[in-house]
Amino acid sequence: MPRSIWKGSLQFGMVNIPVRLYLATESSSKVSFHLLCPDHRSRIKNKRWCPEGDHEVAWGDVVRGYEYEKGSYVILTDDDLEKLPLESSKAIDIAGFIKDEELPGAVYYQSAYYLEPEKSAQKPYALLKKTLENTGRVAIAKFALRERERLVSVHALDGALVMNTLHWPDEIRSTADLDLATEVKVSPAEVKMAENLVGMMAMEFDPSEFKDEYKHALEKIVEAKVEGREDLVEAPELAAETTVVDLMSALKASVARAKEEEKKGGRAGRGGHESLVQRKPTAKTEKSKTARKKAS
């Protein structure tokens, strides 16, 4: 585990749990490009430039300023920020516990962090983790990190406590801004057919089965260019689109294709990723197949 990025305490009620904070994710699959000069093929440098004095500013000389009105700034130092009257800068203070389903994670979740207890706090840490598991509750707290106070959630996962930073409510855009029809008629037959299709495409989520195809394809092109080859990998041709006259026809065609792919034992045609590893069907999967056959 890399070095912790914060050290403090997790508090609920009168219980204080000294913890360390670690990033739970890393961008190992991220593809990075450098900006180069087209003539010399050397990397371009970005300079911190002061337009008022027409000179470069060293990174160590840069100061932090808050614009309180157009063109006017007040300088804030590290000491100023340390004096902020915020309890959340020293601790993750739990305000309460909500039901897991009450948190709309699809729009609220940001980054994920692991909380690790200090040696002396193993028991209260385990107690909180066990309590969250048994109650199905998620802790909600406020926490100051990297010059921002953040809304966070804490829940139990894989034997540890995981903290997620959340968007503030005023950062969530309303769906009222979307151009959505208020009344759309969907027939019971269409709903039933769509449910059959979803049932046929149902799968147990295993993140390890999904691969970063973009990175792999890019590495092939880079390798070819380094070796001076011109036989670069060509983009695959897209399958010809089938013209569908209406929604019901599209659903029927999708179900038919899903059945065909299911017979072949593949997943690509059932909505699964093309790079998924083929797995032997489990007893649970076979049982669900039988149920779907009866339903259709």
Overview of the structural elements:
The protein is an alpha+beta fold and 296 residues long. It has two domains: 111 residues, Beta Barrel (Ku70, Chain: A, Domain 2), CATH 2.40.290; 108 residues, no CATH class. The chain is built from seven helices and eleven strands. The strands form three sheets. Strands 1-2-8-11-10-9-7 form a seven-stranded mixed β-barrel. The chain has a two-stranded antiparallel ribbon with strand order 3-4. It has a two-stranded antiparallel ribbon with strand order 5-6. Strand 3 and strand 4 form a beta hairpin. Helix 4 packs parallel to helix 6. The two termini are 50 Å apart.
Let me know the average pLDDT. 81
- How helix-rich are the residues, as a percent range? 25-40%
- Structural domains: how many: 2
Number of strands: 11
Question: Uncertain segments of ≥5 residues (pLDDT<50)?
Answer: 268-285, 291-296
Compose a concise summary of this entry:
This protein is of the alpha+beta class.
Topology (SSEs and partners):
Elements: E1 6-12, E2 15-23, E3 49-50, E4 55-56, E5 64-69, E6 72-76, H1 78-82, E7 91-99, H2 105-108, E8 109-117, H3 122-135, E9 137-145, E10 148-157, E11 160-166, H4 188-200, H5 213-226, H6 247-264, H7 283-295
Parallel strand pairs: 1-7
Antiparallel strand pairs: 1-2, 2-8, 3-4, 5-6, 7-9, 8-11, 9-10, 10-11
Helix pairs in contact: 4-6
